[in-house]
């Protein structure tokens, strides 16, 4: 098998196991067996179980969260936000284990770095969906506010997926309304202030 294909095969099997059980409950021996390779070959590609876990998590979180809604003449920002929020919630619903595991990485700098990169990607997605690219590049506070929204979206999603305190519909309404208000009311007011 081609080395890149073999590496992907190992990553895919590791991702499956890490989605099913916590990191500490999955062994290199088990990952190697699931991938149909020896432990030596697994170590050749990834070094340690931790390095494999970081690579697996980075790849799981690197998937674009939701396709950007196509521009449609006459579609409002709210229409695009609604479609994007719906796609985000579907992604979470389809891959709950990955996202819940990613939220629980506090205190581990390397894992936090992987998750932080995913969070920045989510903010990039929001910026693209709402068409704020040039503004976000020239005014860093726009990105800062959207990063704040992203953190709130994570916490709200955990209330739905982990704690069951909210329904998917409630989360959708909350995120859509909050993001639309942020875009229509808050960001324009903040931009009236001089840049930091």
TrEMBL record:
<keyword id="KW-0804">Transcription</keyword>
<dbReference type="Pfam" id="PF21943">
    <property type="entry name" value="TetR_C_46"/>
</dbReference>
<dbReference type="GO" id="GO:0003700">
    <property type="term" value="F:DNA-binding transcription factor activity"/>
</dbReference>
<dbReference type="InterPro" id="IPR050109">
    <property type="entry name" value="HTH-type_TetR-like_transc_reg"/>
</dbReference>
<keyword id="KW-0805">Transcription regulation</keyword>
<dbReference type="InterPro" id="IPR054129">
    <property type="entry name" value="DesT_TetR_C"/>
</dbReference>
<dbReference type="InterPro" id="IPR001647">
    <property type="entry name" value="HTH_TetR"/>
</dbReference>
<feature type="domain" description="HTH tetR-type">
    <location>
        <begin position="4"/>
        <end position="64"/>
    </location>
</feature>
<dbReference type="InterPro" id="IPR009057">
    <property type="entry name" value="Homeodomain-like_sf"/>
</dbReference>
<protein>
    <submittedName>
        <fullName>TetR family transcriptional regulator</fullName>
    </submittedName>
</protein>
<dbReference type="Pfam" id="PF00440">
    <property type="entry name" value="TetR_N"/>
</dbReference>
<keyword id="KW-0238">DNA-binding</keyword>
<dbReference type="GO" id="GO:0000976">
    <property type="term" value="F:transcription cis-regulatory region binding"/>
</dbReference>
<feature type="DNA-binding region" description="H-T-H motif">
    <location>
        <begin position="27"/>
        <end position="46"/>
    </location>
</feature>
